[in-house]
């Protein structure tokens, strides 16, 4: 607020202090005092939100879903009949992709199923993908894709990987098309864009588990429900990227289209979209990666594939099998990422061009088709021979056992220290704070940073968690997320700074970040659980590993993009290297670092829900329990609480970026 900037500076212990920060120092001191006071000092309604005051929103949502699936009608059809019909239609492309890549054409079900026609043989698919990759980006991509698919075949992950690939391809296609259409509507109608923006915020911050519940109720158990949940989760980035890419088209091209008499449709399809294609492909890349991550999580409601293998291994604590399937997911993710990047036109590509490229692809596809027909005559060649398969499962099991035997004591010391001196004190502090005080502080912060509108928004979001009866799980979520994000920033920011100073370290950091971002959330938990067992410490490690990448990447980007003129000015005034870093680089990079903090928080919240599998007692556990009991109301309400935590932090950070000097 503008009043704050007028406050004078004072002197404390001989040093000048900006008095506009004094109210927040007082609030922190009061918070510590309130947390340390005996609980008997406060009225009971202050300690715990009264049951009689709670809003039965979860019951209302469950009752609405029951009415929707049992009594509601759309003309002559019930809503349940409509969703089942829609499920049947959406299942057709999914079944087709699965039959081509994984299962083949089957007659019958279960153990009695008979294969009428095999899937595309593993080596035929490798030939076709290698030819297409070489055409797009040259021999390097072709070799990488070939080695990746060979890994899946040799280590016995081919069928599961192809089931996952089929789901990802269909879901990514629907998400990209839907996101492109909604993005174009946002560009054409500012009102539509403003109305859609809060829905996109909720969709991006809502945990995936919350999507699975209504999809399970409406569309039943199976891969279609998982695919629809995946599409809903993956659409928002494509919408936002489409808006940015289209708005970034130069005005000269728009004017040229108008001068040549282009209609609105011609302007869109012949000028705007081709010009914005590189930016749009960034969105497609994000959609593919999000689709892969959600498909893994959606294995809980019947998606199958590698996600089901990882989930089963996690439940059995099968470290070898879980990591083997997890590595297969990572390989598949890397291949999809590189292939999606290759779809963007590149004039520097080293592969064949023109008619040669078309001939190469056509020849490879024809050869793959002939091999597919040959597999129908000799079904044995369609699958990689079992006798030639390898397994890394025993190696991973032995490695974890060796670590447990030789490093159990130091690992246990680290775990105990963190629990006793960091995690538990912060948890007790958060749970001891009276809920009205927390809501008041959040509202006051909104008023201070952005005025009455922001104050009402964040205050209502914060109060919602108490009103629906989920205040304690929300505070546990906030504590675990807060500690994890703080550790991620404390590790990520210095690493990002060091990476910009040493080129060799930057290359290693980029490989490290790429690896972390392609690993699905489940994979982080398997070795950590085996080393530290279940609990908050295990969850914290998983969250830090999953969320640290943006902290490193955004810090490195901000530090490396400081204008050279500022560096030269600092050097000319006699600044040392450390002074240039502290007084020039870091202040100039602060907006980028805040964006990294924002992304770190969102990733931490998404991972926090996954860590419910290792025994946390936060909102993720509430969502996971609701999924297991098919309690759609409780799952959606808990998901909204997680989303609101993310949205509150997002609003504060964005306001801080807009007013860096406030």
Explain this structure to me?
It comes from Acetobacter sicerae. Belongs to the binding-protein-dependent transport system permease family. Helices cover 77% and strands 3% of the residues. With 662 residues, it is mainly α. A two-stranded antiparallel ribbon has the order 1-2. It has a two-stranded antiparallel ribbon with strand order 3-4. The chain has a two-stranded antiparallel sheet with strand order 5-6. Helix 4 packs across helix 7, helix 17 crosses helix 20 and helix 22 crosses helix 23.
What distinguishing features does this structure have?
662 residues, mainly alpha, two-stranded antiparallel sheet, 27 helices, 3% strand, cell membrane, transmembrane helix, ABC transporter permease subunit, MetI-like_sf, transport
């Amino acid at each position: 607020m503008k009043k704050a900037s007028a406050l004078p500076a004072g002197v404390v212990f001989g040093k000048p202090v900006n008095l506009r920060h004094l109210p927040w120092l007082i609030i922190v001191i009061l918070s510590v005092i309130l947390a340390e006071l005996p609980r008997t000092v406060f009225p009971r309604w202050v300690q715990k939100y009264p049951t009689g005051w709670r809003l039965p929103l979860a019951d209302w949502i469950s009752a609405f879903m029951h009415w929707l699936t049992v009594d509601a009608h759309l003309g002559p059809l019930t809503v349940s009949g409509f969703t089942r019909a829609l499920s049947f239609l959406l299942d057709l492309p999914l079944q087709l992709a699965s039959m081509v890549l994984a299962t083949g054409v089957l007659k019958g079900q279960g153990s009695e199923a008979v294969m009428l026609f095999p899937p595309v043989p593993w080596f035929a698919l490798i030939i076709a993908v290698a030819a297409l990759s070489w055409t797009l980006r040259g021999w390097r991509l072709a070799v990488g894709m070939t080695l990746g698919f060979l890994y899946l075949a040799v280590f016995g992950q081919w069928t599961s990987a192809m089931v996952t690939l089929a789901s990802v391809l269909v879901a990514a296609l629907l998400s990209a098309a839907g996101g492109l259409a909604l993005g174009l509507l946002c560009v054409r109608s500012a009102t539509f864009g403003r109305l859609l923006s809060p829905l996109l915020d909720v969709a991006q911050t809502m945990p995936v588990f919350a999507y699975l519940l209504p999809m399970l109720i409406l569309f039943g158990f199976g891969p279609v429900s998982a695919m629809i949940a995946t599409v809903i989760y993956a659409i928002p980035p494509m919408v936002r990227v489409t808006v940015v890419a289209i708005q970034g088209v130069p005005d000269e091209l728009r004017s040229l289209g108008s001068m040549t008499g282009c209609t609105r449709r011609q302007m869109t399809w012949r000028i705007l979209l081709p010009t914005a294609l590189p930016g749009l492909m960034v969105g497609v890349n994000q959609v593919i990666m999000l689709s892969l991550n959600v498909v893994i999580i959606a294995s809980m409601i019947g998606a199958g594939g590698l996600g089901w293998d990882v989930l089963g291994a996690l439940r059995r604590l099968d470290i070898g099998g879980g990591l083997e399937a997890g590595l297969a997911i990572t390989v598949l993710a890397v291949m999809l990422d590189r292939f999606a990047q290759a779809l963007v036109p590149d004039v520097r590509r080293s592969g064949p061009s023109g008619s040669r490229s078309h001939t190469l692809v056509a020849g490879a596809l024809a050869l793959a088709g002939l091999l597919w027909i040959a597999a129908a005559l000799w079904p044995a060649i369609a699958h990689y021979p079992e006798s030639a398969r390898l397994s890394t499962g025993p190696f991973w099991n032995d490695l974890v056992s060796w670590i447990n035997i030789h490093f159990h004591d130091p690992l246990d010391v680290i775990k105990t220290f963190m629990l006793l001196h960091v995690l538990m004190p912060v948890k007790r502090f958060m749970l001891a704070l009276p809920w009205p005080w927390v809501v008041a502080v959040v509202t006051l912060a909104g008023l201070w940073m952005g005025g009455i509108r922001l104050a009402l928004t964040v205050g209502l979001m914060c109060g919602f968690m108490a009103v629906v009866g989920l205040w304690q799980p929300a505070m546990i979520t906030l504590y675990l997320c807060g500690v994890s994000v703080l550790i991620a920033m404390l590790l990520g920011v210095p690493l990002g700074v060091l990476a910009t100073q040493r080129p060799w370290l930057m290359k290693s950091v980029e490989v490290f970040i790429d690896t972390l971002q392609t690993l699905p959330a489940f994979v982080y938990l398997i070795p950590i659980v085996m080393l530290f067992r279940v609990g908050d410490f295990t969850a914290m490690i998983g969250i830090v590993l999953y969320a640290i990448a943006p902290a490193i990447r955004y810090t490195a980007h901000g530090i490396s993009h400081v204008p050279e003129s500022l560096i030269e000015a600092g050097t000319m005034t006699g600044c040392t290297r450390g002074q240039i870093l502290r007084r020039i680089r870091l202040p100039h990079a602060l907006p980028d670092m805040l964006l990294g903090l924002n992304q770190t928080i969102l990733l931490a919240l998404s991972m926090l829900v996954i860590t419910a599998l290792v025994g946390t007692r936060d909102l993720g556990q509430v969502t996971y329990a609701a999924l297991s009991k098919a309690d759609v109301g409780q799952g959606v309400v808990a998901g909204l609480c997680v989303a609101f935590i993310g949205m509150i932090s997002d609003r504060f950070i964005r306001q801080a970026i807009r007013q860096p000097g406030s």
